[in-house]
Amino acid sequence: MKNRPLAIDLFCGLFGWGDGLIAEGWRVVGFDLEDMCGRFGVRRHPDIQLVIQDVMTLDGSQFRTADIIVASPPCQAYSYRAMPWSRAKALPPPDNTLFEACFRIQREDCAAAGRHIPLIVENVRGAQKWVGRSRYNYGSFHLWGDVPALMPQANRAQKVPGFRFDGSGKSFQSASVEATGIKAPGMNWSDQRKRGQDFTRIAGAHRLHADGTKIGGDWFSDPESTCRKHGSKSPGRKMASAMIAKIPLPLSRHIARSFKP
After folding, report:
1. How many CB atoms sit inside 10 A of residue 43's CB?
2. What would the DSSP string read from start to end of 136-152?
3. Partners of residue 79 on adjacent β-strands
4. Could you report the per-residue pLDDT of 97-119, keeping only the tens digit for each?
5. Contact yes or no for 67/52 (Cβ under 8 A)
6. Spatial distance between the Cα atoms of 8 and 28, rounded to a whole number of angstroms
7. What is the residue extent of each domain of the chain?
8. What is the pLDDT of residues 123-154, one digit of tens each?
9. CA dihedral (1, 150, 99, 189) positive or negative
10. For a designed S-S bond to 139, which of 2, 53, 173, 178 qualifies (C-beta 3.0 to 4.6 A apart)?
């Protein structure tokens, strides 16, 4: 394990980046404010080291032995401002501090190491208005930084229609559940009766029954559905949000292969 290249995962969440890096033979040290895997009962690979620490307190010079930095700073502020609501659009500009901290850490790291340490930052499409145009997108996952010239395409054949939280009103193309390619669902804006209703709250468990119906039920047709039984601040809904934000395995593995020494 000591001979493996080292990856630093900032805002690591459920380790979407980490899973792909580990699969391609990397070591991974992740930083976040809490253990999201432990909180939601999601298995974390034993070779991934988690450090509970605020990314804002990190000094990039401590990562001089790293071979890559990956980061997924929180996207909620960008996502909400991209919504087609007057209240959202009336908000002041979001705070880009966490996004910019990733590049600060990279600069400090490169200076300490005396070489370039590549950085990949992931966020939503809606962030582009505030942080500049992304260099590539894999479905709804937009990338900034040292994005390789050759990148994979999201599997459109497996797309689950829904709302994409980037202000476009188009379908959510996240490919968020690892190798299955099943997209994390979202909101339906095409049906006026359901406009604005998020009827797929359980992205972490949205597989189908044998008859093709969604596990957890449908908000509109099933009064006992998980969707109706959990509030917006419930653990189930928070886990769904975390799963939606998780980096797809095909994307993380491609980045891991592209930068492996």
Report:
1. 9
2. EEETTEEEEES--SS-P
3. none
4. 999 999 999 999 999 999 999 99
5. no
6. 6
7. 6-152+250-259
8. 999 999 999 999 999 999 999 999 999 999 88
9. negative
10. 173
| Token pair belonging to 152 | 């994979």
Q: What is the pTM of this model?
A: 0.72
Tell me the pLDDT of the chain averaged across its residues.
78
DSSP H helices, 207-248, are 226-229, 235-245
Among residues 244, 226, 241, which one has the least CA distance to residue 178?
A: 244
pLDDT digits (tens, 9 = 90+) for 82-92: 898 888 889 99
- In angstroms, the CA 71 to CA 102 distance is 7
Mean pLDDT of 222-245: 64
Instruction: State the Cα–Cα distance between residues 15 and 141, nearest whole angstrom.
Output: 15
Three-state SS for the chain is: CCCCCEEEEECCCCCHHHHHHHHCCCEEEEEECCCHHHHHCCCCCCCEEEEECCHHHCCHHHHCCCCEEEECCCCHHHHHHCCCCHHHHCCCCCCCHHHHHHHHHHHHHHHHHCCCCCEEEEECHHHHHHHCCCCEEECCEEEEECCCCCCCCCCHHHCCCCCCCCCCCCCCCCCCCHHHCCCCCCECCCCHHHCCCECCCCHHHCCECCCCCECCCCCCCCCCCHHHHCCCCCHHHHHHHHHHHCCCHHHHHHHHHHHCC
Whether pLDDT at 202 is above 70 = no
pLDDT of residue 234: 65
Q: In whole angstroms, what is the distance from residue 164 CA to residue 147 CA?
A: 23
